[in-house]
Specification:
This is Non-canonical purine NTP pyrophosphatase. This protein is of the alpha/beta class and 210 residues long. The chain is built from eight helices and seven strands; from the N terminus they run βαβαβααβααβββαα. The two termini are 14 Å apart. The structure holds inosine 5'-triphosphate (ITT) and sodium ion.
Amino acid sequence: MLRYVTTNEGKVREALDYLDDDVTQLDFDYTEVQASELGPIAAHGAREAYRYAGEPVLVDDAGLFIDGFEGFPGPYSAYVEDTLGVETVYRLAAAELDEPRRASFRCILAYCDGDPFEASPDPIDRDDRTVAAAHGAEQNAEETEALPVKLFEGVVNGRIVPPRGDGGFGYDPIFEHDGKTFAEMTASEKNGISHRGRALAKFATWYAER
Ligand code: ITT
Ligand code: NA
């Protein structure tokens, strides 16, 4: 059975649209290593979650990248949502940036099942490895780092707008794509074009062929 590793119910609802009934949520809060990109965070999370679960795992790491803020909040999106809140992120962008305030949502899915397969090039560089090893000290850090991980990326472009709509979750109300915010879209509309939907479609194709 495939475990979708996240503490976020919103992600699970979207993922289940792309994956069959054989998938269940694993509510596991893996260590988020500090990195400027999502790949290393997701890869480390997938290895840690696989060691924890002993079953195939798919980790979903996502974030909002605002162009005019050099990608902020990016990998820190969850922290910034919890501390400042989405509305404040909009107000900061409105105060500091000219229209159209371009941004993108990015999602990286990281798959690990302990089997050797053609893994993605390891996205964790040497500095991140040290951090990851320190966090995973209670496990066998070296063995964990050797686990192959396959990454799938999805990106969607849009712009930061005043909050509209009450669907979705997180930053959806302030992210507009094609005239609608993600929070104004139906679940299937969002899933058809979103960063998560795109990454899930790639994963589902690869997984079905295994
Ligand atoms: P897990 O790490 O347990 O999966 P999380 O919510 O902390 O749950 P992330 O670390 O990936 O997830 O943080 C992503 C942040 O970006 C968080 O604030 C989410 O609300 C937000 N986010 C992710 N996907 C989103 C989406 O599709 N729409 C709006 N906001 C999203
Ligand atoms: Na998180």
